[in-house]
């Protein structure tokens, strides 16, 4: 049974609506959204959003920019309070009220015409945990359209037992990055706890707040304004000079195309193959200690390992990969929901006599120098170097993302567990 939470009531859907009724609902939603659009001021996309927009335009039907995550709450939960929680978070964070339009701009929605929370009850299933896994595997892969009508994100609450719930988020990457996934998950715990304590009139000291959560003080519109102003700034000119000095020409492709992609003509991509490899705790601690002795991090260590691998496989002494940068200006935007991440090119020289230690030193030094110029979009660098004219649709073939995010939180007294971040398909 599917239960969808509406702003003022809970609508229980016991069977799939007819195609006629579904079309009617879509027409009404389109009309309501169009009326809201006419009253709203158009905003440009931020630079970070523009990179995602361009990527999606190259592959309009592809779900590779769908991202999200899920986690579990181990304790009782009140559905009506959780519905209020989501509504409050959306109201207080403008990043969740931005609607991308088909012309590459966006508007700020005052109130969504769609449901903010989708609720599923699998507690009557023989194996509710497996039912949740199957539901997510079926729900997550579908693309989120940037049609200027539907909100580009979904929040789900799934009941496994009266003492265990799953929270899941699915969104288009143009709206939210990986760091914001953790912010949103933790923010919901803060709001829910506040609402529950007020309702139950609890006066004793609450449990500690999560390490990160969105406080609503700095809104995403401020970042949009700043990123647009950056394009006309001296800093942008200096950054462009830095990257053009580092890349005199487009890097050679790292991967070789062995098969013809039939999906490309339809504006799509082949499905991703997701492989999960779990590193033993003792091995990870060894990596941490090794990196620490080199005055580096495990992230640097993994980058070096990947560069060594592809250098040997393809017999290349120059490896160029993409590395994500949080791009949140120190503490200023660390509590703001939205899309900030930019992908920065990293060039690593793997000489025949290079050692792991020397490569770590090189990566650390190069990243330290490049981070100062990370705001400059790789797509703009590609344009300067004639990427489109050369028939390429990307600056680098591989992106290495390493995230260690704190999802530890409590919904009143119920702790969260088993966070899982998913990206693309």
Automatic annotation (TrEMBL):
Record-annotated Condensation domain positions: 40-411
Short name of any one Pfam family annotated for the protein: Condensation
The family database entries (SUPFAM superfamilies) matched by this protein are listed as:
CoA-dependent acyltransferases
| Record GO terms (molecular function) | 2,3-dihydroxybenzoate-serine ligase activity; phosphopantetheine binding
InterPro entries referenced in this protein's UniProt entry, alphabetically:
CAT-like_dom_sf, Condensation_dom
Classify the source by domain of life: Bacteria
What are the record's GO terms for cellular component?
Answer: cytosol; enterobactin synthetase complex
The alphabetized list of GO BP terms reads: amino acid activation for nonribosomal peptide biosynthetic process; enterobactin biosynthetic process
Record-annotated membrane-spanning stretches: none
Q: What is this protein called?
A: Condensation domain-containing protein
Q: Which organism is it from?
A: Saccharobesus litoralis
